[in-house]
Design brief:
- By secondary structure, this protein is of the alpha/beta class.
- It has two domains: 111 residues, Response regulator (Rossmann fold, 3-Layer(aba) Sandwich); 96 residues, Winged helix-like DNA-binding domain superfamily/Winged helix DNA-binding domain (Arc Repressor Mutant, subunit A, Orthogonal Bundle).
- The protein has seven helices and twelve strands.
- The chain has a five-stranded parallel β-sheet with strand order 2-1-3-4-5, with helices on both faces.
- α1 packs across α4 and α5 packs across α7.
- It is elongated, with a radius of gyration of 19 Å.
- It starts with a strand and ends in a 5-residue tail after the last strand.
């Protein structure tokens, strides 16, 4: 299966140019021309790498790069001006200086993809594949929708701890509106079909009335 690369730049001519480098090597290419588009793509797609034009004038590149890393485990490659200094707090798999040579950019991205370690988050008998966005419970493996994945990860990141409904609505649906949280209840029900041995008697994904939810710690 072809690797999927997201290219982020506010200049359409640049994204077209960069995309052509990868299309020639039969990569699957997605593009985003704004921070909002980039975050949406990173949340919705199982990306193998992200290329961000760090010189884009209309993008808050520093903040965007951190946000992208918070929602995707895809390695981040920055395109920067020659001799420019990138904030050390930004975790990037590589930096390519302008003017960009297609072969060098593709080579750097391929190296970043090939060197990625497997990323698994485990709590007891549950194992969440952070790259392929799927859940393994014992010997069974379940695919997850993008929302199910973000929701389950938010809970498994804090095993044994209550995660409030408000925090989940903000992290998964990016809203602080609490007037209608039925979609959260529905997704919790769907997750229990995959997390629990007996969904009608949950032992792993627990509801704390009036507070939120938690993933119970258990022996693996």
């Amino acid at each position: 299966m072809a690797a999927t690369v997201l290219i982020v730049a506010n200049d359409e001519a640049l994204t077209t140019s960069y995309a052509s480098f990868f299309n020639k090597k039969e990569y699957s290419v997605l593009v985003a021309h704004s921070g909002r588009q980039a975050i949406a793509q990173a949340r919705a797609q199982n990306l193998d790498a992200i290329v961000l034009d760090f010189t884009a004038s209309r993008l808050n590149c520093k903040g965007l790069s951190r946000k992208l890393k918070s929602v995707s485990f895809a390695p981040l490659i920055l395109i920067a001006q020659p001799n420019s200094k990138v904030d050390g707090s930004i975790v990037a798999a590589g930096i390519v200086a302008k003017p960009v040579a297609g072969k060098k950019l593709v080579t750097r991205v391929k190296a970043a993809i090939d060197s990625r370690p497997p990323r698994l988050l485990s709590v007891g008998k549950l194992s969440l594949d952070l790259e392929k966005q799927r859940l393994t419970r014992g010997s069974r493996t379940f695919p997850l929708t993008p929302k199910e994945f973000v929701l389950l990860r938010a809970l498994m990141d804090h095993p044994g701890q209550i995660v409030t409904r408000k925090a989940l609505m903000k992290q998964v649906w990016e809203t602080e509106y609490m007037g209608d949280t039925r979609t959260l209840d529905v997704h919790i029900r769907w997750l229990r079909e995959k997390v629990e041995d007996n969904p009608s008697k949950p032992q792993r994904l627990i509801t704390l009335r009036g507070e939120g939810y938690k993933i119970e710690k258990e022996d693996s």
